[in-house]
Design goal:
Elements (H helix, E strand, L loop, with lengths): L1 H9 L4 H13 L8 H6 L1 H5 L9 E9 L5 E9 L3 H5 L5 H4 L17 H4 L7 E5 L3 E6 L7 E4 L2 E6 L2 E5 L3 H4 L6 E3 L11 H17 L18 H5 L15 E5 L5 H14 L4 E6 H8 L5 E6 L4 E7 L2 E2 L5 E3 L3 H13 L14 E5 L8 E4 L10 H18 L20 H6 L4 E4 L5 E4 L33 H10 L6 H5 L2 E4 L8 H12 L7 E2 L4 H5 L1 H10 L9 E2 H7 L3 H5 L2
Parallel strand pairs: 3-9, 9-10, 11-19, 19-20
Antiparallel strand pairs: 1-2, 3-4, 4-5, 6-7, 6-8, 10-21, 11-12, 12-13, 12-14, 15-16, 17-18
Helix pairs in contact: 12-20, 13-14
Bound molecules: adenosine-5'-triphosphate (ATP) and magnesium ion.
Amino acid sequence: MWREREDQIDDIVGSAALARSLCSRSSRLAPARLQPKDLRKTSSLRQTPTLCSRSSQRTAGVAIRTLSGVSFILVLRCLRDSPALEAIADIPTSSRAPLDCIDFNMNPSMPPSTAEYGGDEVSAIVLDPGFSTTRAGFAGEDTPKSLIPTYYGKYQAGSEEKYIYGDDIYVTPRPGLSIHNPIGRDGIVEDWDMATKVWEYSFTSRLTGAKPSDPLSNGLNDVQNGELAAEMEGVETEEKPLSDTPLLMTESGWNPTKAREKTIEIAMEQWGTPAFYLARNGVLAAFASGKASALIVDVGASNISVTPVHDGIILKRGVQHSPLGGDYVSSQIRALFKSNSPQPITITPHYLISSKSAVEAGQPPQATYKTFPADKAPDASYRSLIEERTLTEFKECVVQVWPGPGKLSSTGPNGVSNEELSRSTPGRPFEFPDGYNQVFGSDRYRVAESLFDAKAAIPDPDSPFPAPTPAQTIPDLIKNALNAVDVDIRPHLLNNVVVTGAGSLLYGFTDRLNHELVQAFPSPRVKVTAPGNTSERKFGSWIGGSILASLGTFHQMWISKKEYEEHGPNIVEKRCK
Ligand SMILES: Nc1ncnc2c1ncn2[C@@H]1O[C@H](COP(=O)(O)OP(=O)(O)OP(=O)(O)O)[C@@H](O)[C@H]1O
Ligand SMILES: [Mg+2]
C-alpha cells in the first residue's frame, strides 16, 4: 500500500497538504488558501528545506479516537522508518488499505455548521504562547509566521504610560523602560490584560493586520452636527481582529479550569473568533512527531514538563513539571561566570558599548562603554532581558550536557572518572559583546548537569532559583509520570519518548536522556526521538496545532460562537479534554 501511495506523496509538499488531500476525498474539504503549489511558494518552506525534502520524509496517517467518541485521521509527517510508520499498525488491518478510505466514523450528532466555524475557505490561526516567546501562524503552514517575545516593555511618556510589544522591546533603551512578562514562572497567565495584548499583537502584527479604525473617527465619515452618529447607534464600531478566523490555542498540561475559561472568553468576546479550540501542547508535540501515543519531554524557558499522551489524549494524572527550564540553565551559567578564573565574567550588553577592539583569549576587554545618567537609564529588567540573549547564544555555542553513560560526577567501568574524560574533550570558544573571549573547557558541562543530578547544581546565593531537589530533575519527573499511568501503557510510552522545546537543543541532551532512561528502565525498550531540525524542535507544539487545525475532519471539534453563547465558557472543559 505504501508503494502505491509514495508516487502520490512525491507530488505533495508537506504533511498538511497531504492531510488536505486525504481528507478532501473523504470529507469534501479542500481549503482554497493552501494548495500544494502555493505551499511550495511560501518563504517559510524555502527557509526550512528539510521539511519538504522528498527523499527523507514520508507522511503517514494515524486514526485518533477522542474522548467525545469522534474518530478522525491525523496525517503526520515523519521520517522514513520512524515509529510513526509503525503506529499505522495500530489501525485495524481491515481499515488500513487504502488509507484514505478509512471510515471516519464522524459523530454526526452536532457538528458546527460550515457557517458557524467560518467555512473551509478560511485558514485557522494557531497561537502557541510560551513563557519566553509567543508563536502564531496559519494552520497548514510549516512554521509560525509570527514569533515575538512574550515579554513587553513599559515606560512613562509625560503623564502617559506607554507599552512596547514584539521585537521593538530590544531596540531602544528608553529612560525608565521596564520589562515584564504576563505569564508566571509556573507557566500560568498572571496578568490577563497584558497577556491579551501581547497575544493580540502576535497575530495582528504579522497575520491579520491591525484592526480597522473606528469609522466615526477615522476622518472618512465626518459629517456635521453628529448626524452619522445618530444613524450608527447600535452598530458595533470596533471590528474584532479575529471575526473571520477560527483560532486554535495551545496551553500547558496543568492549566487550571479558570484560566481555560478566561482564554475562551477573550477569544470569543474580545477577538470575536467564530470558532475556538484549546489544545494541550504535549498532545500537539506528539502529533507533530508523528505519534498518537508518546511521552513528551518539553524543555521550555520557565519549565521542563513530562506529558504522557495516549491515543491523542493527555493523561492528566501523569503530567509532571518542574522549574528547571532554560531560564534555570541561564542562572547556572551566570553562577559559572561569577566563579570563573582568573577573573569573574560580567556580561555587558551591546547597548552599553560604544566601541571595542579585538583582544587575545582570556585578556581583559578593550572597549569604551556608554553610560546613562540615572534619569535616562532603562530599568535593570531591560538589561537582564538583553543579557538573556547573550546567554541563549552561549547555550547554543558552548554549553554541553554530559552525554553519559553515568552522571558527570560518576566513574566509568574502566575506573576513569567522567569529569576527567570531560577534561580531555576540546574546549569551545565564546566571545562576549564587549570583545572578551575565552575557551570554555570542562566547566561547560557543569551548567546543565543539575537537570539530571540535583547535587551537581552550581551554588549561587543571588540566583532567583532555589537549589533544585532530586524530584525536580528530568529522570525523576519521568519516573513519576510513568508511575501515575496505567502499567500496561508504560512500555509503549518508553518506546515513544519525544523531546521538544528550544531548551532541549543543548548539545548532548538527547544522548544523556537516553542513557538515563536505559539505566532506570532496563527491561522495556527505550526509544528517544528528537527532531534534528531546529525549528521542528522549537515549534513542536505549534506544528502539531498547525496539522490538527488544517484537517478537514477536525471541524467537528471546534467550539462555535453559537455553542459558546449557549453553554458559556465552561464548554471548553467539556470539548477540549
Ligand atoms: N539552541 C539552543 N540551545 C539551548 N537552549 C536554547 C537554544 N535556543 C533557545 N534556547 C533556550 O530555550 C528556552 C526557550 O525555549 P522555548 O521557546 O521552548 O520556551 P517557551 O515555550 O517560550 O517557554 P515555556 O515552555 O516555559 O512556556 C530559552 O531559555 C532559551 O535560552
Ligand atoms: Mg513551551
